[in-house]
Automatic annotation (TrEMBL):
Protein keywords: DNA-binding
GO molecular function: DNA binding
Name recorded for this polypeptide: Excisionase family DNA-binding protein
Organism, as annotated: Luteolibacter algae
Protein backbone atom coordinates (compact mmCIF):
# COMPACT_ATOMS: atom_id res chain seq x y z
CA UNK A 1 0.00 0.00 0.00
CA UNK A 2 2.87 2.37 0.73
CA UNK A 3 4.07 1.98 -2.86
CA UNK A 4 0.71 3.17 -4.22
CA UNK A 5 0.88 6.34 -2.11
CA UNK A 6 4.40 7.02 -3.37
CA UNK A 7 3.33 6.60 -6.99
CA UNK A 8 0.28 8.84 -6.47
CA UNK A 9 2.41 11.54 -4.86
CA UNK A 10 4.94 11.44 -7.68
CA UNK A 11 2.27 11.80 -10.37
CA UNK A 12 0.75 14.83 -8.63
CA UNK A 13 4.16 16.48 -8.34
CA UNK A 14 4.90 15.92 -12.03
CA UNK A 15 1.64 17.45 -13.21
CA UNK A 16 2.18 19.87 -16.08
CA UNK A 17 0.87 23.40 -15.72
CA UNK A 18 0.59 26.36 -18.08
CA UNK A 19 2.89 29.38 -18.09
CA UNK A 20 0.08 31.50 -16.65
CA UNK A 21 -0.48 29.02 -13.80
CA UNK A 22 3.27 28.90 -13.09
CA UNK A 23 3.40 32.70 -12.99
CA UNK A 24 0.49 32.83 -10.57
CA UNK A 25 2.07 30.23 -8.27
CA UNK A 26 5.34 32.21 -8.16
CA UNK A 27 3.65 35.64 -8.09
CA UNK A 28 5.60 36.80 -11.14
CA UNK A 29 4.75 37.77 -14.71
CA UNK A 30 4.61 35.30 -17.58
CA UNK A 31 7.62 37.14 -19.04
CA UNK A 32 9.57 36.28 -15.88
CA UNK A 33 8.64 32.62 -16.40
CA UNK A 34 10.08 32.91 -19.94
CA UNK A 35 13.28 34.40 -18.51
CA UNK A 36 13.56 31.67 -15.88
CA UNK A 37 13.19 29.04 -18.60
CA UNK A 38 15.83 30.77 -20.76
CA UNK A 39 18.22 30.84 -17.77
CA UNK A 40 17.64 27.13 -17.11
CA UNK A 41 15.78 27.59 -13.82
CA UNK A 42 12.65 26.01 -15.31
CA UNK A 43 12.39 23.34 -17.97
CA UNK A 44 9.77 23.74 -20.67
CA UNK A 45 7.89 20.60 -21.62
CA UNK A 46 6.04 20.92 -24.89
CA UNK A 47 2.61 19.39 -25.35
CA UNK A 48 2.22 19.78 -29.07
CA UNK A 49 3.43 23.34 -29.54
CA UNK A 50 2.24 24.57 -26.13
CA UNK A 51 4.88 25.00 -23.43
CA UNK A 52 4.11 23.53 -20.01
CA UNK A 53 6.05 23.45 -16.76
CA UNK A 54 6.39 20.70 -14.17
CA UNK A 55 4.58 21.39 -10.93
CA UNK A 56 7.51 19.81 -9.07
CA UNK A 57 9.88 22.42 -10.58
CA UNK A 58 7.60 25.22 -9.38
CA UNK A 59 7.46 23.61 -5.90
CA UNK A 60 11.28 23.44 -5.85
CA UNK A 61 11.55 27.16 -6.62
CA UNK A 62 8.95 28.05 -3.96
CA UNK A 63 10.81 25.96 -1.35
CA UNK A 64 14.19 27.44 -2.24
CA UNK A 65 12.87 31.00 -2.18
CA UNK A 66 14.28 32.04 -5.57
Amino acid sequence: MKTLNTIKTASVQDKLITKKMAAQRLSVSTRTIDRMAAEGLLEKVFVGSAPRFRNSDIDRIVESGL
